[in-house]
Amino acid sequence: MRQDVLYRNSVTSEVKFKTVTSKSIGKIDEKDWKRIEKKLETVISNVIHPIVEELKAKFQFLSTSNTILQQQNFGLIKALEGEKKRRKRQKPLLQRVISTEDGGAVFWSPQKITQARDFLRQKEEDEAAEKARKVNNKLQQQLRKEEKEEQAKERKLQRQKDKEERERVAEAKNAQQQITVEAKQAKQKAQKTRRPPQKPKQKKQIVIPPAIELLDNITEVVEVETVNPTTGRPRRQSRLPQRFQSPDI
Q1: In the predicted structure, residue 16 carries a pLDDT above the cut 50
Q2: What is the SS3 assignment for 201?
Q3: What is the Cα–Cα distance from 14 to 9, expressed in whole angstroms?
Q4: Distance CA 173, CA 171 (A)
Q5: How far apart, in whole angstroms, are the C-alpha atoms of residue 53 and residue 57?
Q6: CA distance 85 to 87
Q7: Which of 6, 22, 75, 205 is packed most tightly, with the most Cβ within 10 A?
Q8: Cα(7)–Cα(47) distance, integer angstroms
Q9: Range name among 64-78, 98-112, 120-134, 194-208 with the lowest pLDDT average
Q10: Helix, strand, coil percentages, rounded to 5, for the chain
Q11: Spatial distance between the Cα atoms of 72 and 83, rounded to a whole number of angstroms
């Protein structure tokens, strides 16, 4: 209330001041300026500052309320998620063997207790079997994976061996071909450098005329061994053939 009164008074004084000064523009002295400045400071301190402070307080209140609402919303979301999970959970174990009687107390007979125990034991066995099955499946998958990796390694090693064998055979074949080519070239070179064989000289045949041949037959010497009386050594004596000797000889 006091702020409104001050604000109205300040506005009224400003209007009066404007009315007065509008008739005498340019005649404001230093005292009037100081008085105007003082009134402005009063208006700002008494009117504007409280409004600003109020706006600040409202802003802080709204910000705090917003933060609180966010936290509450987050908590409600978590609670809703927990409730959904709780509803998804199965009913308690013993409720499975409770009779569906309408109202009244529930009495547990020895048969129902035995059923509950059997059910619990069967459930544990099923869970253990399921767990063992999952472990076995995981182990089988691991074994199959390792087997595939081992087979891949063996195939890779076999391919490497086959490649090396092909390279070795190719190198041996190339070496054999090179040796054959070099031997052929050496043979051709040797044949080029070797002299051709000389033909054997034919002996000249001398044709003997018949007369000369007859003379040779006549002059055939017959060697007869005789003993030299002086030396005691045998000596040879030339005689004509029997057919050419005279009867006197």
Answers
A1: no
A2: coil
A3: 8
A4: 5
A5: 6
A6: 5
A7: 6
A8: 7
A9: 194-208
A10: 75, 5, 20
A11: 16
Give how far Cα 30 sits from Cα of 37, 43, 165, 178, 246, Å: 11, 20, 116, 124, 210
Lookup result for tokens 């030339």: 238
Residue 224's DSSP bridge partners are 237
| Look-up of token digits 């002086």 | 230
Dihedral angle of Cα 146, 149, 155, 156, to the nearest 10 degrees: -140
Q: Which residue, among 89, 146, 94, has the nearest Cα to 123 in the 3D structure? A: 94
Give CA–CA dist 120/113, Å, rounded. Answer: 10
- Could you give the 3-state DSSP secondary structure of residue 234? strand
- Amino acid at residue number 3: Q
pTM of the predicted model as reported, rounded to 2 decimal places: 0.29
For the segment 214-231, the average pLDDT, to the nearest whole number, is: 49
Q: Which two tokens stand for residue 119?
A: 């059910």
d(CA 14, CA 39) in angstroms, rounded, equals 9
Residue 174: CA count within 13 A, CB half-sphere: 6
